[in-house]
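call fold target=Aminoglycoside phosphotransferase domain-containing protein
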Amino acid sequence: MTNVRPLPVEIGDITPAWLSAALGSPVSAAKVVDVNNGTCTKIRIALETDDPDTPETVILKGGFEPHSRMMDYMHANEVHAYADVAPHSPLRQPRTWFAGFDADAKQGIVIMEDLVARGVTFLHPQQPRPPEEVARRLEMLAKHHAMTLGRPEDMAPDGRFAWAGDLIDGFYRYGETILTPPVWEGFVNSARGAAASTRFHGLDWFLDTLGKLSRFGKAVPRALLHGDTHLGNLYIDTDGEPGFFDSQPHLGPVMAEVAYHVTGALDMADRRTHERDLVAHYRTALAGEGHTLPPLEDLMRQYAAFLAFGYAIFLVNASDFQPEAINTAYTARFSSAMLDNDTLGVLAGL
């Protein structure tokens, strides 16, 4: 595939010749059908080809936004997700034809199945899901976590996932670097800040909390996580089974992923009623994979602490990455859960 690199960094550079090299089959013509802008860019492309194994449409995902060259680490991580993790993971994910990263161009591109053409149901952050659906997804996440739980050799310098960074440390460094008082005030004075309790509005508290979570997160059960299981990255397949995409794999506490998914996916009232049972359900599912977690009370303490990480993600998530309505909805859900689970008290004891 000598013609694959450099990877295109402008949409106009996605030519039939480049697609032929990336897909490994001749493409005579290609047409951009639609473009979905966001943290990364999703482009639906209609292909003309004589190869019966090449689909009529594909989704090409890459960095084609003004901020993309500054987020090459995210593109690299997603390429790892599809190229290095998905083939080993039990999570149902889109079929992938190409996943490559170009360090010189600071670009990562994935060419994947067009799930719309297959008729799946995409989930939406402003439409919370029923508890039984969340329970099924936790079962699949338990299988995914079991793949690396208790296997530090997988993340060692010569391990198969050595490239995986720490979930909380990376965000902590971002916070220390980016969150100056004026930037912070912009977030807490926004709609999402208004949707959160003022108890969580202090910048010093926020940075101190990220430091505590970084340290605490290294003392509890850890695995390779999907890394971003909010509703916008999930779908229901045509057979009713849960599907996952847009992974940002990191090494981190399994309960951070559980807290992130449960709180983000449920309506606040359902979360209050069902969160403890769902954590217990996850614990049982992981036991079925041969892994014993601490008692439920200890897990609920972890759950309470790591709610603050989900809150952190969406409180300071740029509106270029998610619309303000979505950032606000998630910030409200996490703030409510933190109040209900005495996250401040739990963090004070760490």
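return ok
The chain has 13 helices and ten strands. The chain has a mean pLDDT of 94.
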